[in-house]
Amino acid sequence: xxxxxxxFDIIRGEEIxxxxxxxxxxxxxxxxxxxxxFNICLSGSLKPIGKIDIRIGYTENLYYGGHIGYSVNEEYxxxxxxxxxxxxxxxxxxxxxxxxxxxxxxxxxxxSRKTCEYIGANLLEIVDIPEDNDMHQRxxxxxxxxxxxxx
Length: 151
Fold this sequence. Notes:
It is a single chain. The chain is of the alpha+beta class. The protein contains five helices and eight strands, in the order ββββαβααβαβαβ. The chain has helices at about 60-65, 80-90, 90-95, 110-120, 135, and strands at about 10, 15-25, 35-40, 50-55, 70, 100-105, 120-130, 140-150. The protein has a five-stranded antiparallel sheet with strand order 1-2-3-4-5, covered by helices on one side. A three-stranded antiparallel sheet has the order 6-8-7.
């Protein structure tokens, strides 16, 4: 069955809005799932202050790589914009019938760990990345695995 991207051109929040930048189809050969990529903007502005993406589906690689990736430009950090962006993506996850998401980060990434705690994600474990995983081959060795129930 072909994956259908749904209409999420703009997701509005109280302080920030998410503007769809692009969609990326899955790649079965690489075991990649479809993804939505958004720019994070302050409400009333189109100037990006960061980026966030959500990957739709479940694979073993997503356990280590996570369903959501985000970054906030340095001058805008400290305002919980990453966490608020994740919370806005709940609508995408729910519409795509995803009840829980994995969000991962490196153990020394305190800001991302705080983001996961802020949204109420549960730390499942800190794991060694399998040697055959592409993240391990790029030099990453460990990940904190958080589970976020988004129903």
